[in-house]
Amino acid sequence: MKVAEICRVREISVIDVCTPLVIPSFSSRGFPYVKDIYISLKKYLSKVSLVSAYDLYHEYLNMEEIYSSDVVFIDSGGYEAKLVVDLNDAYVDDRYAKDWTPDYHQMILNRWQPLSQLVFVSYDHETHQLISNQIESANSLFQKYPEVASDFLCKPESEGAKLVDVNSLIKNAHNLASFSILGITEKELGETLLERCQNLLRIRAALQEQGLQTPIHIFGCLEPLTVISYFLCGADIFDGLSWLRFAFVDGLATYHSTATLLQGEWSYTDNQLLWARWIRNLQSLESLSKAMSRFCKTQKMAFTQGCIKQTTR
């Protein structure tokens, strides 16, 4: 495949929003005071944001306040409901999850209001299913919301499996046309960064063979350099919590104490720096999204200190 075929502006059907999209996410997992964080930062959200249906149901967030951006993704809630330890996380969240069922998920989806363009993510099932059955279940759900864009979250098929069966997904590529977006969690795409990139290229090629330009959404990925890697392999939409966990400095995700040293912000309190960096991180994500959009049009790019920039040649 040519770069122009892999990296291009793609349209999210139903809502007619174009990619690439880099989405700041909000979650109670690791951030029990997510409501206060969201209220304080919502005026800085312009184009897109993501919230969890789980958090809305359990009132970690207010349903009436989530329409702060032009586009709002309502996630499946699986991340908050299933606390799987990930040694790559900055910390281990040992809180206990509350109840979460398909009925609770739909109760939240039924409360949507046309105050923003909306994208619903399919339910993250506790029991494993064949991808063909996952597609069928998601279609059944999304048919109830024809005015909302659909994000089919593909999950591992068998008990104990940690990865999505990419071969099975490719075999079912012809059945993905009904969805606005195809979603895959980053850690379920492959065991290594190389394998994830290779699988992304395979999935993008399979979609193209079916005549589909369905955007691919990588869940749980928001570190700028990793976003660029997946973007160059065919992914279009990225979300995650890294912008709340780390400070983005010259395109790199660093610990806040490291950012203090690198940026010489010695005289500010930790709390002052935290809020300032969250705002700066939002600005960095918007800049990254714009840079990827430019690349889709020009196919010219330079890397400077971990950032993607358009070349002038």
Automatic annotation (TrEMBL):
InterPro entries: TGT-like_sf. GO terms for biological process: tRNA modification. SUPFAM superfamilies: tRNA-guanine transglycosylase (SSF51713). It comes from the Bacteria. This is Uncharacterized protein. It comes from Aerosakkonema funiforme FACHB-1375.
